[in-house]
Structure formats: structure tokens, C-alpha cells
Write a structure and sequence with these properties.
290 residues; Metallo-beta-lactamase, Chain A; seven-stranded mixed beta sheet; 15 strands; globular
Length: 290
């Protein structure tokens, strides 16, 4: 699929920072059994799972151009960040993300809004950049939209024990007075609306596009891998509330199944975008390939 597609009158671009075999499937999804994994190996490999049984995840942002605004949904991993637990991310210095913006004719100065579906490390990284030894907003003309409930939770967690992604990619935005605190059902306008999808984090939101949200929806991390579509009860290992995340997946998949709404999955392997269809007792993504 092209990295650029239409959602109604809007144009949506995928900005891919990294795509790779990431973590063993049985560790990433603790409820997954080896028998179930083996039974699904034939369709998972190679696109969604590599030869070593690591789930393939795409780390990407979506840029939505409405004709009036350029909106960045999630800001990926970022450069120069202290991420010792993830060697691939630790003090990264590649140009993939910025090259992606350049490819669609934009610079960081052209982004009007940054929507963070939640405040996990791989969704806030490019919120800031290192400049003269300080973390400053990467998108100087943008308003960053944080769920107030989500932000309050993570600031409280950071007060108890320092969390590098919050320290370097969230707190500087707050201190720069560059963020607007919203509810997870906030409407930016009649074409861009948030959809509450809690569970992975305390107040995670998805982003819907078009009148009534019918043209497209950007999922964030309410679902990570196609195997969770077939088995929606599979919770991811760091879900804030596994039962709630499962209920949210069921709600989301039932809401969009057999509709014309393009579902833009945050971490599904490329091409990442498609339509939700029923598959046995679960669901699958019918990818758009052109």
C-alpha cells in the first residue's frame, strides 16, 4: 500500500520510523499459548511474526492533512533518548522520521496539532528534540493534545520514580505550555474526534476522521498485533487493565467490522491500514494494498 491514502476529503500519511521483529510473541502476549501460536503460525509468518517467533511491529505516526491543519497522531520513538532497556532505541540518531515528514513536503514547523493517543515511550518520543543540552518541543507551532487523566496519571507515576519518557518527552511540553488538556472524547472539529479506548493505559484514546468518524480511525495501542484481532481477549503484557483492554478491543472491532471505515493500526505490519472483517470467531484486517 502507498504510504499516503485518502480518508474522505482528508489526506493521511504513514510516517514509518522502524519496522522489525520486536519481542517474542509468548512474552508480549502472556495469555497466548504455544499451541495457539503454532496453530496460527502459517498466516502470521512472515509479515506479522519473524522466523524467531518475534512479533513484527511497525513503529509509525500518522499525519492527517485536513486542508486547514496538519495533525500528527503519535510521535514514535525519537532520537537521542536514554532508552537503555531497548538498545534499538537507545540514543538513536537516524533520520527516518524526519525523512518521512520531508517526503510529504512538511517540516516540524508545519505541524499544527500533535495528538498523543497515550503517553507510552514509543508514542511520545518525537514530542521533543535535544537542542543545546535541553529538551524542547520538536513542533514549535503545534498544540499537543494530552488526555488530562492520562497526563495526571503519568506525572504522578513520575513523581514516585523517574520515568525517562515522561521526563524527556512529556514534562518539557508541559513546561513550555505547549499542551492542551482534553477529555478522551474531545472533538477538535466536526471531522477529527477522539474516541475513548481505555485499558492499554488509563485513558487511551483513538482518533476518528470524517463526519461521524466514518472515514477512518487511527487506533493507537488498543491493539498491537493481528493475532489480537482473531483473539481479542489476548492482553498485551503492560496493559494497565487487561480485562478493560480486551473489552475495548471487542467494542472497537464490533464497531468497525464490515464497515467502510479505514482502520489505521498503529503497530500492525505494513501496510497497516485496512477494513475489519469477521474471521471465524474473531476478526482480521483486510488490508488495502493499492
Amino acid at each position: 500500500m502507498s504510504l499516503t491514502f485518502k480518508a474522505g476529503d482528508m489526506t493521511v500519511h504513514r510516517i514509518i520510523e522502524m519496522e522489525c521483529g520486536f519481542t517474542p510473541a509468548l512474552e508480549f502476549l502472556p495469555g497466548l499459548t504455544k499451541d495457539v501460536l503454532d496453530a496460527n503460525r502459517s498466516w502470521l509468518q512472515p509479515a506479522a511474526m519473524d522466523a524467531n517467533d518475534n512479533l513484527v511491529l511497525c513503529f509509525q505516526a500518522y499525519v492527517v492533512q485536513t486542508g486547514k491543519h496538519n495533525i500528527l497522531v503519535d510521535s514514535c520513538i525519537g532520537n537521542d533518548k536514554d532508552r537503555a532497556a531497548r538498545p534499538l532505541w537507545h540514543h538513536k540518531k537516524d533520520t527516518a522520521f524526519m525523512d518521512g515528514l520531508k517526503r510529504i513536503g512538511l517540516t516540524p514547523n508545519d505541524i499544527h496539532f500533535v495528538m498523543c493517543t497515550h503517553l507510552h515511550v514509543d508514542h511520545v518520543g518525537w514530542n521533543t528534540k535535544l537542542e543545546n543540552g535541553r529538551w524542547v518541543p520538536t513542533f514549535p507551532n503545534a498544540r499537543y493534545l494530552f488526555s488530562k487523566t492520562e497526563l495526571d496519571f503519568w506525572l504522578s507515576e513520575n513523581d514516585r520514580a523517574s520515568l525517562p519518557p515522561i521526563v524527556d518527552s512529556v514534562v518539557p511540553i508541559v513546561e513550555a505550555k505547549a499542551c492542551d488538556l482534553v477529555t478522551s472524547d474531545y472533538a477538535l472539529n466536526d471531522l477529527v474526534t477522539l474516541l475513548p479506548t481505555p485499558g492499554h493505559t488509563i485513558d487511551h484514546y483513538a482518533v476518528t476522521l470524517g463526519k461521524g468518524g466514518r472515514d477512518a480511525v487511527i487506533t493507537g495501542d488498543l491493539i498491537h498485533s493481528p493475532i489480537q484481532a482473531l483473539y481479542p481477549d489476548l492482553a498485551m503484557r503492560v496493559d494497565y487493565d487487561g480485562k478493560q483492554s480486551s473489552a475495548t478491543r471487542h467494542m472497537f472491532l464490533e464497531k468497525y467490522v464490515d464497515t467502510s471505515t479505514k482502520c489505521c493500526f498503529a503497530h500492525f505490519p505494513s501496510p497497516s491500514v485496512g477494513y475489519v472483517k469477521r474471521w471465524g470467531n474473531g476478526f482480521k484486517c483486510d488490508y488495502i494494498t493499492a
